[in-house]
Amino acid sequence: MSRRGLAAVASVLDQAASSATNILVLVLAARLSSAAGFADFSMVYVAFTVLLGLNMAYVGQPLVLEKDPERLATACRSGLGFTGAAAAAAGALLALVGLLLPGDARSTGAAFLALGLVLPLVLLQDGLRYCFSALRAPGRALAADALRLACVVSALLLQPEGASAGRLVLVWGLSALPALALGLWLLRPSVRGATATGLLQELRPYLRRGYLGQRFLVEFAVGNGSSQLAVLGLGAFATPLAVGALRGATTLFGPLNVLFNSANSFGPPVVGRASGKRGVVRLTALMGGALAVTGAGWGAVLYALPERVGRELLGDTWQAAAALLPATGAQYAVMGLGTCALLTLRVLNPRATLSLQVVFSLLSVGLLLGGYAVWGVAGAAWGLALGSASKAAAGWLRVARLRVPAPAAGAPADQVRAA
User: Model pTM?
Assistant: First the structure.
């Protein structure tokens, strides 16, 4: 196998390790906790997922687009420096929120306090993945993430049954230390040579107007963060058990997130080699169809699981989550089509995605909340599915209407697409 092929395999395996970590954390937390305890853990984990996505959009995505070899070391140093500073500030705020929550929400407050304490560790460890991706060293990312997976599973397996959500969050966060140490050690040879003053100067671009990550941040906020925050909001005005049920159902579809993340991360370079708009659309449509069939098939497999097996996976949360599997399976099927529609637009015209994300992500939030008001948790799940289907349909309609200018003689194809 060629060096490029080995790198692609390592990248996919790294995505799989990262996704497996998230899945197993939620599965083990569900098995160790009561339904109420897992609801508290889920609310905190949703908050972490939003913060993780914000950091990925603001720091990670611009970092992996850096093509100048002479700037890679600076970009990696500044990315980790900004991540650490932002995570410390957000962690302090979360800890304060946890301390201020009233007595009847003490267990939830303890979980948010624990998240605030460990947030810099987990965000820095995840941020290393984007540094290694920018440096074209996915094998190093795989080594660190594999260690992270082994440590977090081992640490959670040692916890007693009935452990509080705060304890589980603290153990989950501290278990990132070995992987963080390994990642920093592997990264150090590539980023040497910075002084304290130089590091401060390297952080300035993140605060300047027009920084590329600001655009990606808006796209994430309306595309992913809004639905996550809407789910989190259900726990505020409805019941935390609704969050636990929705989170439990989506956890079972975690393996599909590996495929979606791989399509987003590694799809553009592959699809970009296709010939013209027709070639790009043909390839992404095939990918979207394959992801949709996979999502529907995985949903059918989960729906057919015996209750005994389901309880082994999610404990007391299984009964509530199982009722949502048809809706969540439908959502993931259409998400495969939507992911590839957005991938097509990213390749052909990156500026065409922001308005699409804003309108249809807000529509999804409205459908989620409206569905809950009409039909409870099941209605919320079907609202998310309908929102994802609407976004996918609008994405492919935008692709069909998109006009791509023919490349000028001698102009590289990627230069024309970026125009």
Answer: 0.72
Report the pLDDT value the prediction gives residue 193, as an integer from 0 to 100: 65
Residues in the chain: 419
Phi, then psi, of 28 in degrees rounded to 5: -65, -40
For the stretch 264-274, pLDDT in tens is: 665 665 676 67
Within 10 angstroms of residue 227's Cβ, the number of other Cβ atoms is 21
CA distance 305 to 187: 43
Residue 17: exposure state from Cβ atoms within 10 A (0-12, 13-18, ≥19): buried
**Between 7 and 381, the higher pLDDT residue:** 381
201: CB partners within 8 A, 6+ apart:
none
Least confident of 34-48, 234-248, 354-368: 234-248
Q: Which residue has the tokens 């048809």?
A: 326
Instruction: Return the half-sphere exposure (C-beta side, CA atoms, 13 A cut-off) of residue 50.
Output: 20
Q: CA 51 to CA 70: how far, in whole Å?
A: 30
pLDDT of 136 reads 80
Q: Give the closest residue to 402 by CA, choosing from 389, 412, 388, 417.
A: 417
Question: 186 with 140: CB under 8 angstroms?
Answer: yes
What average pLDDT does the chain have?
83
Q: Which residues contact 120 (CB under 8 A, 6 or more apart)?
A: 84, 87, 88, 91
